[in-house]
Amino acid sequence: MNGEKDKADVYTKYIAILLALIFIIAGAVYIYVNLPKNEEKNEEPTPEENILLTTVFGSDSFNYSLEDLMNLENTIGYGRYKSKKGISDLKSYTGVSVQELLDTIDSLPDNYTLVAFAKDDYNNTYSMYNISGHVEVYNESGNGTGIGNLTMIIAYEEDGVILNDSLGGPLRIVFVDEEGSITDSGLWAKYLIRIEII
Fold this sequence. Notes:
- 31% of the residues lie in helices and 38% in strands.
- The chain is α+β, with helices and mostly antiparallel strands.
- It folds into two domains: 1-44; 49-197, Oxidoreductase, molybdopterin-binding domain (Sulfite Oxidase, Chain A, domain 2, Alpha-Beta Complex), CATH 3.90.420.
């Protein structure tokens, strides 16, 4: 009787060991099949997540991350704007001039219009005259004083801080010079994501 019981105990142990090995192998196979897919999804963000600005000219489009924009020659200046609420505070802005950005595109026509689109669907149109910084400027009372010679930039920093949603970023169109001339708020554009050249 004891011999049969011992044999049954041995078989039970073998079956238990065999089942444990099957579970371990099945678990390893499951991890092998599924883990690489999860790592691929989590390791690197998709390129679209890094793109802040798309510039479109005809059938060509050019995508820029913050790093791409920061690697272009930067422009630093001061700007203020006039709105219904009054004159904004003087701020310093760092970014890339629109002209500098457009100079990276081959075969631009002699005359074109630029349309800037924000992520909230707002859009604004700029002539070449505007792009070259020739816009109306105002005094502290909000009265026009003529046409200024400013620089139109795509700003990614305000007062040394990287722009975020609360500052109208991550990209904004602003007009700057060394004095912080006052321009019309209608020329400034928050939440910039796309530029089309027409």
